[in-house]
Amino acid sequence: MAAKKDFRADNTYIISTDSTDNPKLGAKVLSDGRESLFLDFYLGFEMAISSKSGKEYKKVNNKREFLKLYLWQAPRTPFERQQNKETLELAKKIRFERGQELLESMEGYRLKKERDINFLDYFQAYIDKYTKKDIRMVEIALKRFIDFLNDTPEYKKYAKKIKPEQITKDMVEAFTEYLQGRSVGEGAKSIYARFKKVIKYAIEHDAMLKNPCTGITIKVDDQQLKKEVLSPEEIQQLIATHYEHENSNIRRAFIFCLYCGLRYCDVKDLTFANVDFSNKLLKFEQNKTKGHSASSGVVIPLNDGILKLIGEPSDPDKRDEVIFPLPSYEMCLKALRRWVKRAGINKHISWHCARHSFAVNILNNGANIKTVASLLGHSGLKHTEKYTRAIDSLKQEAINSLPELKL
Questions:
Q1: 28 within 8 A of 11, measured Cβ to Cβ
Q2: Which fold would CATH assign to domain 232-400?
Q3: φ, ψ (nearest 5 deg) of residue 253
Q4: Which domain of life is it from (predicted)?
Q5: Which residues contact 187 (CB under 8 A, 6 or more apart)?
Q6: For residue 40, what pLDDT is reported?
Q7: pLDDT at 389
C-alpha cells in the first residue's frame, strides 16, 4: 500500500522518510495532474537582529531545487506506474549525490575517493547502478574498450588497469577506429556515445580532469539502411519453419514485430492492457523516447491474424499480464538466428531487422511515408526516409534482375 501523503499548506509533501536526510526529497502537486519533484536543502543558520523588535534570533537558511522531474499524481496505467517508479529512483539517486556534495562543501567531508582509480572498475561500478533501458549498450561499450586495449599492442599494458588520466586523445581516436572496424552501421556510433557518457560522468564526479573525447566523433550516414531486411516471401518461409525445442514466445513475438514494427524493448513489455480488442488497436509508449518526446505514444491497427497471435490473458481480470514472456535479449537473438538458419535464409538477422522489414515491406506495398512514420513512432520524417532509399535500392535490384536486353 502506498504511503499516505502528508500535504502541507503550499500543496507540497516530503517523500524522504529519514529525518537526517539533507536535502530532503519532496513533491509539489500541479494543476495538470502531475507532481513536480524538488529537493529542500537545510543550509544551517545564522544569528540575525529583528528589524521590528531589535532582538537577536536564529535565521534558518533553506534552499529549494526543482529537479524538472515529474510523477503522475494518480497513475492509471501500468506505463504511468512504471514511469513513476523509474522517475522516483532517479530522483533518489540525485538526492543522494546532492547530499554528498553538500557534506563535502559544508563540512569538508568527502566520500572515500581513491586517487588511484582504475577506470575499468569505475566503468563497471557505473554499470552496476545504471537503471536506464540501454544498459546492454553500456555493457557492450565497456567490453569493446577492454577488447580494444587487449587487441592494440601499444595499449595492451592497460588491459587490466588504466587510470583516467592515462586515457588520452590519441587513445580515444584509435578506439573509435577500432569500433568502426568491428561494428556494422550505427553500432560503432552507439557504443562510442555510451563510452562518452561514462567519461562525462567521471568528469562531473571529479574522477577525471579533462575530456579526452572532445572533438572526436564517429559519423555515419543516418539515411542509409544498413541492416538486413526480410522480404514477404522470406517472412512466410520463416513462419512455415519449425524446429525441435523452439521457444513459442520468441517465435510469436518476432512474427508480431514483423507485422507491427516494434523494437525488442517495447514488445517484451507489452501487456494485454495495451490492446483495445473491441476497436482492434494496439496502444503503447515507446521505451526509447518515453518522457522526452511528444511522439512516444504509438497506436497501431490490428487485424484478426495479429489478434490471434496476441491471444488472451489467462484470466479476464489479468489485464497487466505480459503478452510475450521473453527471456534475455541474448537468448532471444540466439534462438532467432537458429530459426533463420533452419529456414534456409542466408542473412544476418537481428531482432531490430523485424522493425526495418516492417517499414520497407509496407512502403513497398504503397503506404505513404507519413503513415509509416506514425506507425514507427517517429517524431518526423528524417528517420523514416532511409526506408524510402531502401525501396529505391530494391527497385533497382528488380530491374537489374531482368535478362540483358540485346538489340
A1: yes
A2: hpI Integrase; Chain A (1.10.443)
A3: -65, -40
A4: Bacteria
A5: 179
A6: 92
A7: 65
CB 120 within 8 A of CB 161: yes
Phi-psi region of 367 (alpha: psi -120 to 50; beta: other; left: phi over 0): beta
Alpha helices, DSSP H only, in 114-247?
A: 119-128, 135-151, 169-182, 187-204, 232-239
In the sheet with 24-29, reading across from the earlier edge strand, the strands are 12-14, 24-29, 34-49, 56-72
Q: Report d(CA 261, CA 362) in Å as an integer.
A: 10
> Which of 272, 295, 292 minimizes the C-alpha distance to 282?
272
Q: How many whole angstroms separate alpha carbon 334 and alpha carbon 104?
A: 48
Residues 3, 24: Cα–Cα separation, whole Å: 16
Q: Under a CB-based contact definition with an 8 Å cutoff, are residues 241 and 372 in contact?
A: no
Positive or negative: CA dihedral 37, 42, 43, 48: positive
Question: Which ranges of the chain have pLDDT less than 50?
Answer: 1, 109-114, 221, 223-225
Q: Which sequence spans correspond to the domains of the chain?
A: 12-107, 119-204, 232-400
Spatial distance between the Cα atoms of 71 and 271, rounded to a whole number of angstroms: 22
> CA–CA distance from 86 to each of 72, 82, 83, 94, 399 (Å)?
12, 6, 5, 13, 51
* Phi, psi of 68, rounded to the nearest 5 degrees: 60, 35
Question: Does the reported pTM lie above 0.90?
Answer: no
Closest to 196 (Cα-Cα) out of 185, 68, 188: 188
Dihedrals phi, psi of 299, to nearest 5 degrees = -125, 125
Contacts of 89 (CB under 8 A, 6+ apart): 131
118-159 pLDDT per residue, tens? 999 999 999 999 988 789 899 999 999 999 999 998 899 999
Of 199, 196, 219, the C-alpha closest to 207 is: 199
pLDDT of residue 407: 59
| C-alpha distance across the termini of the chain, in Å | 82
Residue written as cell 514494427? 261
Q: Are the CB atoms for 279 and 327 separated by under 8 Å?
A: no
Cell numbers standing for residue 248: 513459442
pLDDT for residue 139? 94
Q: How many residues does the chain have?
A: 407
pLDDT given at position 1? 43
Largest CA distance in the chain: 109
